[in-house]
Amino acid sequence: MWKPDRQSKKPLYEQISDHLERRISYGEFPPGSLLPSERKLAEQLGVNRSTVIMAFAELRSMGIIESRTGSGTRVSRTKWGAMPKHTPNWSRYAEGGSFLPNLPFMRRIREALNQHPSLIDFASGELSADLAPSDEITTLMNEHRYTSHLGYDNPQGYIPLRQALVSYLDKYRGIQTTESSVMITSGSQQSLYLITQCLLSPGDAVAIEDPSYCYSLPMFQSAGLRLFRLPVDQHGICPEDIRSLYKKHRIKMVFMNPNFQNPTGTVFSIERRKQLFDVASKLGLPIVEDDPFSLTAFEGAAPKPLKSMDSNGSILYIGSFSKIAASGLRIGWMVAPHSIVERLADARQQMDFGLSVIPQSVAAQFIKSSYFHPHLERLQIQLQFKRDLLIESLQKELPDLVKFITPQGGLHLWCKLLHEVHDGKLLEEAIKRGVVFVPGSVYGSDSGFVRFTFARPKTEEIAVGISRFAEALRALIVS
Amino acid sequence: MWKPDRQSKKPLYEQISDHLERRISYGEFPPGSLLPSERKLAEQLGVNRSTVIMAFAELRSMGIIESRTGSGTRVSRTKWGAMPKHTPNWSRYAEGGSFLPNLPFMRRIREALNQHPSLIDFASGELSADLAPSDEITTLMNEHRYTSHLGYDNPQGYIPLRQALVSYLDKYRGIQTTESSVMITSGSQQSLYLITQCLLSPGDAVAIEDPSYCYSLPMFQSAGLRLFRLPVDQHGICPEDIRSLYKKHRIKMVFMNPNFQNPTGTVFSIERRKQLFDVASKLGLPIVEDDPFSLTAFEGAAPKPLKSMDSNGSILYIGSFSKIAASGLRIGWMVAPHSIVERLADARQQMDFGLSVIPQSVAAQFIKSSYFHPHLERLQIQLQFKRDLLIESLQKELPDLVKFITPQGGLHLWCKLLHEVHDGKLLEEAIKRGVVFVPGSVYGSDSGFVRFTFARPKTEEIAVGISRFAEALRALIVS
Questions:
Q1: pLDDT in tens, B433-467
Q2: CATH 1.10.10.10 fits B12-95, yes or no
Q3: What range(s) does the HTH gntR-type domain occupy (chains A, B) (predicted)?
Q4: A398-415: string of b/e by CB count within 10 Å (b at 16+)?
Q5: Domain B104-131+374-478 adopts which CATH fold?
Q6: Which of B54, B217, B262, B452 has a Cα at 20 to 30 A from B85?
Q7: Of A132, A330, A349, the CB nearest to B355
Q8: Interface test with A, best of B16, B28, B89, B197 (most A CBs within 10 A)
């Protein structure tokens, strides 16, 4: 993004006022709209607040902006054109719609990461750049031609990728299916979005693990769903809880992440799986199985998906490359009965007209290639190494203040804080010290938990990051 | 997709019954669900209907399926597992949700094209494969590395692409903006989806051109919007109509495609543009300007967008590569005030977590490259050539039966039928003869119109396609 040029002879404040004047005159900030605060702009542009104050004074003297105490700085209504009061009230439009904004903590984290790219990031639920198979993918991209078909794609997804996934699902996940049952999506996120928007109606009750990734997604509330909780212990949820939720609230769907659950890392136990199928089949209840982490299993075989035992057809299966290869490919998939695939492919055509063939084609080449398996093995070893580094650091820095179960796969460690601390204050103290994490309450859990994504920071950042986090935590406990 | 192997010693009907048994046992067709009809399956698999009848008989004898007169063929409820009646009622879920299915004609066209890829396609609103810059893009992909960043992207879009678009918009569209006002979307489709979902609320009234592409998009109804019509004549809409709709229905937004309007090909006149800005500014009404076709202008300069004259900040501008380069890149953009971009980027993160960096990066290289301008010039010449071929064919085959205004840009020709014909029957007759088009009623217009996309068929298909269409039309007029 634009930054003032420190080599230029023009003073910084003048560069900034020129830049803002341009953005205002181009319509980015229409008459009457609020400008970012002096503090925020100073952070964004990497200058002192006093420089921004001078730039604002310049714009004020030209009649371009107006400041009123307590209500911030706005673009003048009188300066622009003859009837400036009739510019559309854009901020009212921005507040409209039935779509809820992201959770405040998630927005705050994203904002902090945008402004300070150097923050040590235990928050973003993805692999660090060095864990992605970039070289392998570059090689494949140079070996193949991906542009033979640049028209609109089949709304169910690129057929060669669906065919490649049928083999992948059989070999790696024990799932037998056909390409006509597979739909390609923009990551698990879009699969969940399509399910909540198209298969459920506002007012419907659904059951969700507690804690769960799903609580971090306002999409469930945006779809008008009523959420009910299935507490997760070290063996996962208790299937009997589903039965009682069904009796009380007629829940219409269950959302689960059985293997290396996000955020707790739990693997749903074999015994309870049997009970789950029993309950689901008795109630005719569909289970959405989100399975992004299984192939990260640090030791031994990857835990099987529910779908591989789904003799009764109760499972909608969701998978993705985001957590095992590269989130930037934006490739996920769903395995579902014919009527569901047809419905969702039709709806997605209205939303985005399908995905670009290029990343789909790259993904198909990658899973069919001889690079795929070695990549997975390397990933498992490196993730385990990072997990161990995180655990060492926590044990060294905070032996008396945290408790956790060591995850055997996945990207995250779910950490209980043994002292009561205010979630938001802890996050701000951490950001001040140059580190971010996700407060547990984002996942619908009681406060007093933190999710550390050990996959995301660079190896050399983990110890530093935890030492900063420890400082932040101790600052709050002492004060 | 799967087809029976005609070289195999196994009879076709057995291959088909085995294939269906597999799909049923894998859960694609759960117990109780409806199978495709014999006719449809025969079409899909490219076999005689009698072969499918034998395959069904085979499955019936094994107790896997059941047929009842008048209600089609279903998967048996009794064969699979102990409590088969408790498989989720998937078809009920498929009917749920507030998202409307695509229009029947659009579904029928897609189905026909899937089943018979050899149909001559005047229906799909895109370029033929030979008009896409595939070689240029392949060269660029081999020259650059696109995998340096394979993590989640900025939800507003890849910054280098936004920067490239700022220059593009200035140079080609006379729009001055900054990268912070630009948002990248999955084509115009996603821009419209985000606007209708996030900036408007169910029950809101909006104004739409008549006829308009927008009527082909159930997304407007899915968002619960009330649609009001702005009739298009040869100079576009009449801005005074906006004023009266505002008085009567308090419309909250206007959707327009001012240049080479889809489907009519009209260019909104200079005089009416002035009136439009006047009305919009008096009412404080936002105008969504969809501008996908301008750069196809066959002769002379591309018509300017409204946004380039938008001194009052009334316009939300939408652009895309789909109609001028390749729809398969899935790259579109929006230029909007800050508050709108923030809101929409936040919402889109919940829907799909942003686009893959790969096609964004390719698109950025392409518009910055020396290939871009020559590609546009070649495209204009070839589109004009195809338009002329279409017009010649229509004049030769149907001189007495159709009337149209020659479009000066865009991909479509809007054709009035001088005899009354049933839209649906005409489409079926045409499909039978190996050609598809879009019936005018899809665009909300009175029946008696047809949209021909001359950009989509191959050059050598145009005359044959129109001769088939002429046969279909004459068959209905005679009978």
A1: 999 999 998 998 777 899 999 999 999 999 999 99
A2: yes
A3: 10-78
A4: beebbebeebbbbbbbbb
A5: Aspartate Aminotransferase, domain 1 (3.90.1150)
A6: B54
A7: A330
A8: B28
